[in-house]
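Protein fold
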Amino acid sequence: MSSRSEWEPRGNTVHACLESFLLHGDAGDPGEYENWVTPLVNHSIWKTWEPVAVEHRLVDARYSIAGSFDALLRHKDTGRLVLADLKTQSSQDSKPRDVTPQLGGYMNLMDQCYPGIAVDEGIAIWSKPGSVAITTYKGPKCVESYLAARSLYLQEQPDF
């Protein structure tokens, strides 16, 4: 959290630009974060994948857990769906971190909110200054990781 003043404005701006790009085809003004946004919107992923939902909110009322994923993408040829989560990183040397619990949470919520819509894979889109990297995660591993994290979280909650 000590570097929040650095990453939060970058993350908010790059996310807003991606949302605008996916919804309207125009990223808008990225300001000082152009080095993150331009490679992101020009990435080849957008030639084969299209947005189905953007910044979509989901809720699990049983456990009072909610979240909104960055994008649900559909492959233009096969129709396969993947959940996409955008992460911004400060430098080219930044390494991906494990986002399986977060993606698994979205997958679990999707399954509850939209039964029958199969999302069995997630991707993290790592936006760095001057480049983009994509990491793919298998759905079952993500959901397993999320359920373990949720279990630990719920154990710490007080009884009411």
Remarks:
- Residues 4-24 form the longest helix (21 residues).
